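Researcher: Re-running this chain for the archive, since the previous output was lost when a drive failed. Same request as before.
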Amino acid sequence: MDQLPIAGAALGAGAAWMAWAVRGRSSAVFGPSVWRGRRDRRAVALTFDDGPSEGTPEILEILARYRVPATFFQCGANVERLPAVARAVSQAGHAIGNHSHTHPLFCFRSRRFIEDDLRRAQEAIETHTGVRPAWFRAPFGARWFGMGPAQRRLNLTGVMWTVIGYDWSLQADDVVARVAGRVSNGAILCLHDGRELRARPDIGATVQAVRRLVPLLLERGYEFRTLSRLLCPTN
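Model: Regenerated structure tokens:
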């Protein structure tokens, strides 16, 4: 009889480990991944997922006003839908990362599906912007078996985040409070300039939050860097 609680505890521990392996921000189980930069520099990387969208130009205007660079993790299907907006991101001096082609939940998907989706995004982004991404962020932050080999073949390094704003569900006040209250040296901040693959998504909360967060963090003495410059300061 004593074996039943032991077996249950083992199963629970195994489930907890798998959950961390899939979505833990510091997990590199399914492929190389980073979630923050060095703590000895007062610098942060502002990143955006799910774009480009019709609202992306508003964010670009705010970043241009403060001369702040960011990294945009773009979905290949959105790039194909809005190629001019995708190009505008690159032309404004921002970095572009791979956020998959179709924004799927990769859990339980085949290795072939994962690699094909990442490859399609790489090709779409490069075709329409001239940029071949070096960074990859999985949709929903969920990694899976086969992702590591796909990343290696496509020369992609996985990226999670230090602080996520939940800007798809929170109001701007709450997004600002959440990010500003958790930011620290070397932090990778995650917001969203799209909502998965939706056309004309409402990203008003994100725009308002960015309008307030950028000057707030600048006043606190933080320098904004692209992801590459945050993680590889000599670049």
